[in-house]
Write a structure and sequence with these properties.
It is a single chain. By secondary structure, the chain is an all-alpha fold. It has one domain (14-169). 81% of the residues lie in helices and 0% in strands. It has helices at residues 13-50, 53-90, 97-123, 132-140, 143-169.
Length: 171
């Protein structure tokens, strides 16, 4: 019978924790981008086409409220896992100045995404204002902008992975 103090398992508890953090971070990405893409690119256009105004408002509010709950949970997951993963990477020899700069841009864009999501929730509850600056604000804080930012954040994640692995490989 094997000794419980020794194991042939090749990963440490810390490595397993990091795997769980990456997995949770990825699932939160699926909620944010997958759910946002569905709501923005599929649900919203169909509601505008085929439903009367009362139905649009009722379904829009109901789906928006439910999606907001999922986004809040995913945001908590992003913050917790992102902090753990950031400290792990920055504490290793794979972290360089370039890595830090790209990471800072990625975090800034993610914060912008969180702000847009908060604003979209408020926008449903507040009367829409008009004017040039209001239009600019709606464009910069739109669901479509949120999706583009999400795609950019994913690109930056791929760049970070490449920078990190290249540094570790000594190239």
């Amino acid at each position: 019978m094997p000794d419980s103090a020794t194991s042939d398992f090749p990963m440490s508890a810390a490595q397993l924790l990091l795997i769980a953090m990456r997995w949770a971070h990825g699932l939160a990405t699926v909620v944010w981008l997958g759910g946002g893409a569905y709501a923005t690119l599929i649900l919203r256009p169909h509601l505008r086409e085929g439903a009367d105004e009362t139905t649009q408002l009722r379904l829009g509010r109901a789906t928006g409220a439910e999606f907001a709950r999922w986004l809040k949970g995913a945001t908590v997951v992003f913050i917790v896992t992102g902090a753990i993963l950031t400290f792990d990477r920055l504490a290793s020899r794979g972290a360089t100045v370039e890595y830090g700069v790209v990471l800072a841009v990625k975090v800034a864009l993610a914060l912008w995404m969180f702000a847009i999501a908060q604003g979209l929730g408020r926008r449903r509850r507040v009367a829409v204002s008009n004017g040039r600056w209001a239009t600019v604000g709606r464009t910069v804080g739109s669901p479509v902008t949120l999706l583009w930012l999400g795609a950019l954040v994913m690109l930056l994640a791929a760049i970070l992975k490449t920078l990190y692995e290249t540094q570790l490989a000594g190239q």
